[in-house]
Amino acid sequence: MTASQHSVLLVDDNIGLRSGLATVLEDEGIETRQAERGDEAIKLVREVRFDLVVLDLNLPDMTGVTVYTRVQKELARPQCIFMTAEATEELIEEALRLEPLRLLRKPFEVNLFRDLVRRAIAN
Fold first, then answer.
1. pLDDT in tens, 57-88
2. Which of 3, 19, 83, 84 has the maximum number of C-beta atoms within 10 A of its C-beta?
3. Residue 11 CA from chain centroid, whole number
4. 3-state secondary structure of 77
5. Does 94 fall in a domain?
6. CB–CB of 82/55 below 8 Å?
7. In CATH, what number is assigned to the domain containing residue 14?
8. How many Å apart are CA 3 and CA 35, to the nearest integer?
9. For residue range 10-63, what is the model confidence (pLDDT) as tens digits?
10. What is the pTM of this model?
11. What is the three-class DSSP state of 53?
């Protein structure tokens, strides 16, 4: 990764969605790394500095809220976008209290996602 290149961590257990979002971002020149589980994401954050973390709220091993809370210990106030197809209102409220850049409901428009990421890494 060059000094000027931005990187995004995509965390979702749906490989099709994860790969599709990675392709969209890589076409924009944004480096991506992917994780299927929360523990993988936390390990990656310890190894790589990310400009943005995109997290599904429901992962096989823990919630996206738990992952983000742990990631905050590794990164100083990392930027985050949560996404979910289905989550309890309680989990959504918990996620929103963490002040993410956005909580996207799946399915969402790819252009909206790309624009959100562009704005996030431009700051």
1. 999 999 999 999 999 887 776 799 999 999 99
2. 83
3. 6
4. coil
5. yes
6. yes
7. 3.40.50.2300
8. 23
9. 999 999 999 999 999 999 999 999 999 999 999 999 999 899 999 999 999 999
10. 0.94
11. strand
Beta bridge partners of 104: 83
Task: Flag whether 1 is in a domain.
Answer: no
| Tokens 């589980």 found at | 37
Range of the domain at 32: 7-122
Supply φ then ψ for residue 63, to 5 degrees.
-85, 160
Where does residue 65 rank: exposed (0-12), middle (13-18), buried (19+ CB within 10 A)?
Answer: buried
Output phi, psi for 59, to 5 deg. -115, 160
Number of H helices, E strands in the chain: 5, 5
* Residue 2 resides in a domain: no
| Total residue count of the chain as it appears in this document | 123
Asked if 16 and 40 touch (Cβ cutoff 8 Å), the reply is no
- Compute the chain's Rg from CA coordinates: 13
